[in-house]
Structure formats: structure tokens, C-alpha cells
Amino acid sequence: MNNKGNYIVSLSRLSAWLGEQAEALGVEIYPGFAGARPVYDEAGNVKGVCTGDVGLDRDGQPKESFEPGMEFHAKVTLIAEGAHGSLSKQIQNKFGLREECDPQTYGIGIKEVWKVRDEVYEPGKVVHTLGWPLDFKTYGGSWLYHMEDNMVSMGLVVGLDYENPYLSPYKEFQASQPFLRTPRS
Amino acid sequence: MRAYRTLVTARSSASGEFPPIHIAINHHGTRFHSQLLLTFSVIDHTNLITMFTSRAVASSSRTVVIIGRSLPRPVASRLTPGSLQRTRPTQRSFATEASSERFDPLTIERDSDEVDVCIVGGGPAGLSAAIRLKQLEAEHGREIRVVVLEKGAEIGELARWLRPLQLTVRLAYPLGCRD
């Protein structure tokens, strides 16, 4: 594997930076507006999305502060919600997009971010493990990134099909792996 | 019908999202009955006024156990001793049956807007797509309208709507109890 010369970034800060670039190019960004449902044309094709209504009570009835959501009609609608997006699921169900696909797989992950001493801080260091420190029957892996300002991101993901019911992903992560413990000491 | 206005002390019970709230009411020896409808509000240390309406489900001469849900209302700016006494708590019903006139979000009139590309999700994928589309169209000397909808309050911010409900109650005033 050759993966040198890349950056270690915070995804949220990358998104914030991308947002600035997009606005500079004239993209209209509306934060605080969630897409609530797709809008279909007469033929049943997606023609846009509708944002959520605000000011509904717990029974779904409008209150005094009710503001209906608005519709955006578009030539192209791009659903980029990430994993388990609500609009993605509505569209997947309507058009049967998940049929004859592999089922979704799931993992559980634990992440810690530490501010470490200078002596153990190696800016730019990246460690990935595949399988380790889990046993050979368990699917998973870990990461360790030395980010800027003495910050270290580390974590472990365990596939949720693990066979040992006593396995605790948290304890596996906290277990005595020297290289995971070093930056914390 | 009698109205009580007395100082009460309230505390939330053990952990849990909507724990029963034990209210000790100094009501000068008057006994509450088990089907009493209580409507009162409390002020916590963040100056949020919280309204409760509930039935007392168990009572003794000094203690009423309330099972209900709090409705946080940020009305700190209106909180003066005078306004406290004038404030009338709203009555809420706990009916579980649907009301006859249901609101249907599909039938109401909505504003709509025509755009070229509508992107749902202001993450790396959505924003990259928006940027690249703008760049490609600019190369061809064209201008298209690209809209990005993002659920979060700002781009790059993690969702914060799972903040745990705050139930610490320090001071309490009942504003009216009726029997």
C-alpha cells in the first residue's frame, strides 16, 4: 500500500472549508433546512425535495408558530445525505433500489481524541490495523492518527457479526495494546 | 374549586428521560386527592420556566407524585415576580385519540422554487458535487443554480439535537392547583 503525501484532516473542518469554497462559487447553501421528503411529478419521477415543516406539536398538528416547508423543484436532485439518510430510504423504497443488492453491514466503533505530550507526539503518523487486536474470527480494525496541535485520534471498529457474545468492543479498545496506550500515557 | 399558590420544592427522581417528579407541596394540611389535576410551572437554575400539567397519581398529605412531561419554555426575559403571579399555565390534554381534523402535510399550499440542481446534504459528497458542477459550467461559460440543503445549523457542525433533556430543578412555584 502506498498512501504517502496525504493530509490528515478533520472531516467537519473539511466540510466547513468546502462550504466556503462552494459559496465563493455561487452555490446557495441553506443550513438548518432538512429535506423532509422527495417531490414527484405526475409520472412518478423525482422532481425535487420538500423541506420540513416547523412548528408542529407532538401530535403533528400545526401550532401558532407553524411554518410550512418549501419545495425545491430541480432538473437534477442529488441525495447526498450519507449513511441511512431519510430521503435516501424513501427513494430506495419507492424505486426498489436495494433489491438484489448485498445487505447492509454494520460495525460498532469507539473513538477517542487525546492531547498528548510532546515526547510521544509524531505529527503525521498514521497507523491502521486490519483485524488486529481482535481474534481471527472477528472482523474489525483500528486507526491512530497524529493530527495537529498534539491531538491524536484513535479508535477501533468491530463488525457486528462477531460470534463471541462476551466480546465487548469497548473493552477490546481499552485492552492493553501498547501502541494504542502509548499516546495516552 | 380552590386555587393554591404556594412555594414548592421539586426534584427529579433518579435518572431516566422522563422520571416521575416528586413534588413536596406545603399546602397547609390540605389533602390532595388522587385524581387531582395539577398545573404548575417551575423555574430551574438556567431561568427556564417549565410547565407541568399532570394528574397526581399518588398522594399523601405532603407529597404528590407527578408523572408527566415537562415543556421547556425560554421565557426568562419575562420573568419578574409580578409576571409570575399573572402567568396562567395552559391546560393540556393527554388524550391519545386522534383529533377529528388531522393536519395533512400533503394538502397545504407551499412556496416552491425552481433550481437547476438541488443537493440534499452539505457533507463532503454534496459540497464537492456542488463545487464541481459550478466549475464545469463556468468552464463552458454557463451559469446554473445549485442549492444545497443541510440539516445542521451550519456546514461542518455535527448534529446536536440529541442533547440530553435537562431535568434538574432547583426552585419551584406552583401557579394554580384546582380540585
Please explain how this structure is put together:
The complex is a heterodimer of chains A (185) and B (179). Chain A is of the alpha+beta class and 185 residues long. Helix content of chain A is 18%, strand content 35%. Chain A has helices at residues 11-24, 86-95, 169-174, 178-181; strands at 28-31, 35-40, 46-51, 54-56, 62-67, 71-79, 107-115, 126-130, 140-146, 151-159. The two termini of chain A are 30 Å apart. Chain B is an alpha+beta fold and 179 residues long. Chain B has helices spanning 81-86, 124-139, and strands at residues 8-12, 21-25, 37-43, 49-59, 63-66, 71-73, 112-120, 146-150, 171-173, 177-178. In chain B, strands 1, 2, 3, 4, 5, 6, 9 and 10 form an eight-stranded antiparallel β-sheet that branches. A two-stranded parallel sheet of chain B has the order 7-8. Chain B is flat. Residues 1-39, 43-51, 53-91 and 158-179 of chain B have low confidence and may be disordered. The interface between A and B is large, with 49 and 47 residues.
Keywords:
heterodimer; A: 185 residues; alpha+beta; four-stranded antiparallel β-sheet; 10 strands; 18% helix; B: 179 residues; eight-stranded antiparallel β-sheet; two-stranded parallel ribbon; 12% helix; 30% strand; flat; disordered C terminus
Q: Could you say which structural class the secondary elements and strand pairing of chain A correspond to?
A: alpha+beta
Reading the helices and strands of chain A in chain order gives HEEEEEEHEEEEHH
**Number of helical regions of chain A:** 4
Number of strands of chain A: 10
Number of strands of chain B: 10
The first-to-last residue Cα distance of chain B is 5 Å
The global form of chain A is: extended
Assembly state? heterodimer
SS summary, helix count of chain B: 2
Largest beta-sheet details of chain A = 4 strands, antiparallel
Note the beta-strand portion of chain B: 25-35%
User: What's the pLDDT, averaged over the residues of chain A?
Assistant: 86
